[in-house]
Amino acid sequence: MLIKKFVRDKKKMPFWSTAILSVTLIQLIGFQKLDEFLQPPDFKKENVVHAQTKIVTASLSDTTLKKISVPKGALRYVFTPEYTAIAYIKQFAPGKEELIIQDNSGIVLREPKGKVKHMEWLGESNTLLYMLEKGDKQELYLFQLQHKEPHFVYKWPNKEFKITKVFFSPYLEYFYLQVRNEENTELYKYTFSTGLTVLPTEDIKIARVTYDDKKDIVFILDQKGEEWEYKNGGLWDKNGKLYATNKIGTNIQKEPIIQKVLEEQAAKRVKEETKQK
To answer: Which of 4, 96, 117, 272 lies 20 to 30 Å (CA to CA) from residue 206?
Structure first.
């Protein structure tokens, strides 16, 4: 009887093996499609080599993927991480400068409306953060290569404000600004739901700021050597006691297109981290 059962089970093995293999293949295809869906066009490359096999994953041309060089006459410049686009400052008249953003398709933006005080690409999002000085005021913008139009974020009332550091979280689609205003350091946070938020740190003389981009925690050391944490919309002291909550700025504009790009980048980064583990 045991022999008959073994023979019967052995006959069933090809069927169950085939079924399991089919389910596994379906799951793998599903994960690949999900990964492609979450991956924004800016991150897709036409040719991806996997196990020595060329697989087409996007319709971008080879030209788009070529590294761009520094244009002639550029005074200052910053590249995207893969060197496929550049933002640079160029003089177009005596004493007048303009911001130009260019990729392999050509110039995608000219901004001659103010003096550029800061420009920085946010991680691999192909999103440029830049500040313009216009008269006595300063304005903050986001520009995403895919959408061709800059998006106003915030306006400061004078030109004394200077961005000293940008903390960007590709995991959580947020960024923070560390801004110097004469003798004081101020902190701001950008999210889609609130726009640009002024953090409640006006009573603290900030000496140093660090950031955990995975947990979205800002660590602050003041000039007295005391430690603070900003998390979950509030400022906490070294004893874990809530000290202050957010103040929302009055000159805020939200931009859903930029938020979508940041969310897509966050999803991509999380998947890459998962694969590495």
So the answer is: 117
